[in-house]
Amino acid sequence: MFTRELIGMEVATVSGRQIGILEDLVIDTVGGSLRYLLVAASGNVFDAPRKVDDKGRMVIETDRMRIEDGRIIIN
Hints:
CATH superfamily: PRC-barrel domain
CATH architecture: Roll
């Protein structure tokens, strides 16, 4: 997939809970792999504190993610 196809997609958990909308990606320029999703959160979506960037977007690791039914699903 192209990054332009991913940006704007809904991000949800495996249980179907909506996290937010994908705004940007962080790519490892040395290894070339996708490292993090930068997600504009839909309210208070997690009980535990999460890492956020300087624009207030959640920083989510991409080690366990997939595309399903037009959404990005994270574990």
